[in-house]
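Help!! Second protein's tokens look totally different from the first
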Amino acid sequence: MNTKPSSNKTTISVIVAIIIVAIAYFYYTGTTATSTNLVSSDNASVGTQVLGLLNQIQSLHIDNSVFTDPGYKTLRDFSVPIPTVDVGRPNPFAPLPGFSTSGSSASGH
């Protein structure tokens, strides 16, 4: 009677292995063909977009007369310099000065 349960286990494990191999085969073969087509179409659309943007950039003409305008020359910079300060402690995990850690415990006793 011991041969029948082991035979059932062997049959079930062979069937499970075949199913896993079939799923893996369909998964890898399906995504490889699809991803190749998607990548090539994406590259073509990206190339078209880049060429369109390049043509737009080349057709731009910037008028530099704005910088010689008297209104632009009267503008002043009112920015305030930000002083440098210390960022923090050298070791943020070190105990704070003036506090004793020997009397405290994590369990709350």
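Here's the second one for comparison:
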Amino acid sequence: MSLGQAISTCFRKYATFSGRARRSEFWWFFLFVYVVGLILVWVDGLLGLQVGASTQEVMINDTAVPLVSSGFGVLSSIFGLATLIPGIAVFVRRVHDSNKSGWLALLSYVLILACGIGLILQLILGLLKSTPGDNKYGPETA
């Protein structure tokens, strides 16, 4: 599956959590979201589209140390919200492709919020080999 096909498929199956997704579909979509997100963070900074940006001074050992918060970018946040559901959906379908329960995807997100170790679980689940032929989550995708 090519980059364009992966993006098209993920947006067409915006909130489809059933079925299967090959590794190429998952990783191409992940690359798309990551690269476009980085570009939009840069554009937000270039155009000054940050909300909640502030500069404060913190006293450490009688020395004023500037503490800068860049806030969050408007364009990158809109893009992040627009790709959140299809990103979770393609991840669940990716887990299904290796004949594992989609609830493992939820577990990985909970572990990310709790302690960050969920990123390792997501990496492992994203790299698992596909189940050849049909499995309990559907037929093998092309």
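Reply: Different proteins will give different token patterns, so don't panic. The two ends are 8 Å apart (CA to CA).
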